[in-house]
Amino acid sequence: MAADPLPTSHALPSPFSTSTTPLTLIAQGAEALLYHTTFLSPTTPCALKIRPAKPWRHPTLDKRLTRQRILAEARVLVKCLREGVAVPAVLGLDWETGWMAMQWIDGGSVKEAVRGRDVSVNGADGVLKGLMRRIGRAVGGLHAAGVVHGDLTTSNMMLRPIAGETADRLRGEIVLIDFGLATQTVQEEDRAVDLYVLERAFGSTHPREEGTFPEVLEGYREVFKGAKGTLRRLEEVRMRGRKKSMVG
Amino acid sequence: MPIAIGLEGSANKLGVGIILHPASTPPSPHDSVHSSSSAHTKPTSPPVHILSNIRHTFVSPPGTGFLPKDTAAHHRRWVVRLVKQAMKQANVRIEDIDCVCFTKGPGMGAPLNAVAIAARTIAQLWDLPLIGVNHCVGHIEMGRAITGADNPVVLYVSGGNTQVIAYSAQRYRIFGEALDIAVGNCLDRFARVLNISNDPAPGYNIEQLAKNGKCLLELPYAVKGMDVSFSGILARVEEMGRKLPQPGTPEPAEPWVDPDTGATITSADICFTLQETVFAMLVEITERAMAHVGASQVLIVGGVGCNERLQDMMGLMARERGGSVYATDERFCIDNGIMIAHAGLLAWGKGFKTSLEDSGTTQRFRTDEVLIDWRD
């Protein structure tokens, strides 16, 4: 997501086109634009995900895909909330114009927190391990709810500050975000690949902290009953990698 | 000024090309132009001289594909004639040539072997070094040389391969690929159901038919992250093809019509639907790779890359990202000998040689296995 020029051609959908709160672009992927703004009342902060129409796609196909994807993402989020997994709540959506408003999550990403952690403090390793274990529990809870995320990285995990707790940046509640590639599945293989993607992403983003990754799997085991099978499958996935080794 | 001859025969095209690289260093002028001055990126002289580039295609009858045995026989029958013709057209002597390049893989075993035998024979007769070339790397390097695209995300789409590739640290890394069959294979096999001619290529004839298509039918859409899958689409579209009234049979009592307009569904509509769906998938994974690496240029190579609808769609996407699309015409998109000669000569410039003992071919040869030591 490097130096992408801002597309100016996309008009904002209603009600955001008439909102008095400014929209701040916070991320742009291939699929969607993510803004920080408010929803309906100026005191309700929200994350607004807009999926602009793709002019190269046939309009019928474009509408179908936008609708399917927004609905799939919203359904996954709603399912997670119902099962007690910490994810942003869905505030509203419109598949015709292609937007979904979600509850704004305070705090920073796990990536920033791990990158910026103070290693000199006494017990820093213990705090990091605690965080890793909480990540494992969050992912375990997600999988127990029958959802795989599809793109687990430390940028897609927020640390929401807990009221009354010390302001250590590695504390806080793990909230998973960006369910654009999520699917509802009960396949062991899908869950194992989900963990494998996280393991690889964590290793390349935080090479110094890579040794603490087993804590994630420990936390995963604590909360998810099917962990044993998934972790066995993970061994296999590690052996072959996510990609096949041939071209057909 | 080094000259190479390249022999390609990994599928149903047999190609022979002779190339000359004007300056001994650097082999790819675009790299040097880019580093010396970013203001003007167009070199004044053409980067490479194509002395000859000829091809002979094995065309199987409508409704059938090309079988390895018949294709290898075709290559054996034509390879001597093509080499002679290429030498004559290039107007070079045997002494002028520096190396013999051939496709090591990936591809179909029997045709690859037939051409490798020819390359080994020439190399020994003329006492020249052999250079085994990865077919995919050949496509990418030729595309870069012809279009001048400096560091693009590459979409390589053909009958045997579907890959989204970006260069990083002397490797062409595969970001996304087809998990089952290649996109060109999907098009070719659909053409067989409708008995569409394989001359000049089934994909070309589908493209022409699709121009008259209007109704977009519903097909599966299978994108998973940066990967794609086409076998489900093929199964569905084959079903649709068989649903059309066959010539010589009476019209069905209830014709298959578009629910919106009431117009009868034709083969053109199915071709249109197939193209719109699979190309949208390809553009989507390419865009995701571009967003991931922060690139704005995209280069399309491989036989399916000739398709103008695919080029147009990719152009719209690239323009929205503030970039542009680079594509070549059928001389370079479709398998050819010149790309093998070009990529081989780049490797030769770095001292690479394939010994006679290692000059076997391989059906499986991933793009990211090759060390690209001629790029920074």
**What's the level 1 CATH class of the largest domain in chain A?**
Mainly Alpha
Q: Mean of the pLDDT scores of chain A?
A: 89
Major sheet of chain B, described briefly? 5 strands, mixed
Q: Over all CA atoms, what is the radius of gyration of chain B?
A: 21 Å
CATH class of the largest domain in chain B: Alpha Beta
- Overall pLDDT confidence of chain B: 92
CATH topology of the largest domain in chain A: Transferase(Phosphotransferase), domain 1
Largest interface: A-B, 29 and 38 residues
Number of helices, counting only DSSP H or I runs of 4 residues or more of chain A: 6
Order of helices and strands of chain B: EEHEHEHEHEEEHHEEHHEHEHH
Which outline of chain B best applies? globular
Strand content of chain A: 15-25%
Distance between the termini of chain B: 22 Å
> What is Rg of chain A?
19 Å
**Spatial order of strands in the largest sheet of chain A:** 1-2-3-5-4
Distinct helical segment count of chain B = 11
- N- to C-terminal separation of chain A? 31 Å
Per CATH, the architecture of the largest domain in chain A is Orthogonal Bundle
The helix content of chain A is: 25-40%
Integer tally of domains of chain B? 2
Organism (chain B): Cryoendolithus antarcticus
GO molecular function (chain B): metal ion binding; tRNA N(6)-L-threonylcarbamoyladenine synthase activity
Pfam families (chain B): TsaD (PF00814)
EC number (chain B): 2.3.1.234
Concise description?
Chain A is built from six helices and ten strands.
How would you portray this structure in words?
The complex is a heterodimer of chains A (248) and B (376). Helix content of chain A is 38%, strand content 17%. Chain A has 248 residues and is an alpha+beta fold. A five-stranded antiparallel β-sheet of chain A has the order 1-2-3-5-4, covered by helices on one side. A three-stranded antiparallel β-sheet of chain A has the order 6-8-9. In chain A, β4 and β5 (99-103) form a beta hairpin. With 376 residues, chain B is α/β, with parallel strands linked by helices. Chain B folds into two domains: 3-147 and 332-369, ATPase, nucleotide binding domain (Nucleotidyltransferase, domain 5), CATH 3.30.420.40; 153-329, 2-Layer Sandwich (Nucleotidyltransferase, domain 5), CATH 3.30.420. In chain B, 40% of the residues lie in helices and 18% in strands. Chain B has a five-stranded mixed β-sheet, with helices on both faces. Chain B has a five-stranded mixed β-sheet with strand order 8-7-6-11-12, sandwiched between helices. In chain B, α9 links the parallel β11 and β12 (324-327). Chain B starts with a strand and ends in a 27-residue tail after the last helix. Classes of the chains: A alpha+beta (248), B alpha/beta (376). The interface between A and B is medium-sized, with 29 and 38 residues. Chain B: Residues 20-47 are annotated as: Disordered.
